Predict the 3D structure of the following.
Amino acid sequence: EAQVTQNPRYLITVTGKKLTVTCSQNMNHEYMSWYRQDPGLGLRQIYYSMNVEVTDKGDVPEGYKVSRKEKRNFPLILESPSPNQTSLYFCASSLTGGPGELFFGEGSRLTVL
Amino acid sequence: SQKIEQNSEALNIQEGKTATLTCNYTNYSPAYLQWYRQDPGRGPVFLLLIRENEKEKRKERLKVTFDTTLKQSLFHITASQPADSATYLCARFSSGSARQLTFGSGTQLTVLP
């Protein structure tokens, strides 16, 4: 089954404790992206990657890091989480990063105390 | 910046009626507009894509229009059913180096039985 898999789905952590949210897709997609979703603000892009070793900032990259060492994986790293990073995070992928369908994961709800 | 706005946060309609959701954009016309459905606690799911040079696109009970003069897209669900209740997101695709989708904040549709 074609899918984007995120882990963990739920996480409560404390300020400053580094964490990684993993994302994996099994569709051989070139393009992957991370979004955060907050009430009233909609989905905002954090980082995206056009292919292996190619990443770029989205609209809200501060406080986040990403890497794309393999085509299928695109982890999101919070080096020193802060409470304002409490949010619902979505990983997404598409074939080429063109205008076609974006496939989303199920989301990771992060709470930073 | 390229903004995209969905005017109504929430829309309630009676079963069997046509639901019409609005999406407005600023500045230049996007090459493409997309519509997604999002259920509570789930990732968005792609529904339809419409190109700038297309006036209308249909898929089963769904219809999307694109009016570049009004800078607006309308999303219609005909013969609505309670199962259509969800949040609907529109997104604009920006060509060029960024190649990212910019999402509206969504309209929560409730179809009353």
DSSP finds no helices and eleven strands in chain A. Chain A touches chain B at residues 4, 31, 33, 35, 40-45, 48, 50, 56, 58-59, 90, 92, 97-107 (CB under 8 Å). Chain A has a mean pLDDT of 95.
